Amino acid sequence: QVQLVESGGGLVQAGGSLRLSCSASGRPFSTYAAGWFRQAPGKAREFVAAIKWSGTYYTDSVKGRFTISRDNAKNTLYLQMSSLKPEDTAVYHCARSKGSFWTDYDHRLPGQYDDWGQGTQVTVSS
Known about the structure:
Shape: globular
Distance between the termini: 39 Å
Strand content: over 45%
Low-confidence stretches: none
Number of strands: 11
Largest sheet: 7 strands, mixed
Order of helices and strands: EEEEEEEEEEE
Helix content: under 10%
Number of helices: 0
Radius of gyration: 13 Å
Structural class: mainly beta
Oligomer: single chain
Mean pLDDT: 95
């Protein structure tokens, strides 16, 4: 099991930037693929970005604005968010894949992830 804790959320004006961090403890985080999801009030959890052996992946609405990365030495996953829009407002969660880093999977599906963090709130004002 991997324990995940997100941080870095907050209130920002449209056009601003934030960097989210996801700190992992327990089993080595580097042995798993990982992703970011978000959930706005009254909406389903939505895929945002993933990092796998084959590369990085993003939902269309954040391409060119968000960047996912990881620092395995620090056991930490990041999401750099720029040009933020009010529609980016949500609770952002990180998660680790069910399989190993080298296992292929559909990174868009929440069911393909096991351990989840509690989330960090991102609010973008217009």
